Amino acid sequence: MTTSLHSSESVTRTSSTAESFRFAISDVWTLTGREFKHWRGQPGTIILGWVFPVMIVLMFGSLFGGAINVTGGAGYFEFLIPGMFAMTMVFGLETTVMAITVDAAKGVTDRFRSMPMSSSAVVLGRCTADMVNSIVGLMILIGSGLLLGWHWHGGFDKALIAVGLLLLLRFSLLWVGIYIGLAAKGPESVVALQILVWPIGFLSSVYVDPSSMPTWLGAMAEWNPLSATATAARELFMNPGWQGDTWATQNSILLAIIWPILLVVVFLPLSVRRYRRLRS
Known about the structure:
Elements: H1 2-41, H2 43-64, H3 76-88, H4 93-105, H5 108-113, H6 121-147, H7 156-183, H8 190-202, H9 215-222, H10 225-237, H11 247-250, H12 252-276
Helix pairs in contact: 1-6, 2-3, 2-6, 3-6, 3-10, 4-7, 4-8, 6-7, 7-10, 7-12, 10-12
């Protein structure tokens, strides 16, 4: 009799967990769809976000292409474009922060919190929509790179791993952005993030070899998570990089995995906890 009761409780608990998970997935999908509807309402902004990295590639390739010597005599685009793939994972982060902050400022987040829905669905829905946006933007940039003469020289499997590392970086940075958006006092606070994005991007190996920088600055650039992913992408695409002998350079693929995982481990739970603690 006791065994029967325990079994019944276990089945009920399992069924309740499965049902809660199903409802959570449904909530996430509903809020992801909300973001897609916003895209339809402002297609120009979304398309500009996809095209902007292509414009940066053309600008930097034209400005610096003739002044920078690349290892092995390859063209600058061969060096630049994998770095820009990584840089694209940073672009749009302020948009994520702004969207989260504006929803909180307008009371939209409070309305979501008052509804019978999963407490993590709001942040997960935003993350899912932004990941889809990032995938489309990355595919457009890859296509543009191919048109400009860039190619990957390794196997297709290595190219897929490189794309996976790029999207892993984007996924981790989204959680940083979501947390900042939830913690921000208002839309005005997002300006500070917009100011910081570019220095973080430039203090990396995206555009130039860190060995050409002052020693202390080059060390900071090599350990930048953006540099780790850019260097790993160049290695997997078999595009030219630089012959650094530091641990960060020699283990770029490992570092391109460790950095995003650390960011997710820290900022995902912080984001969910921050959302739950928001005051109406």
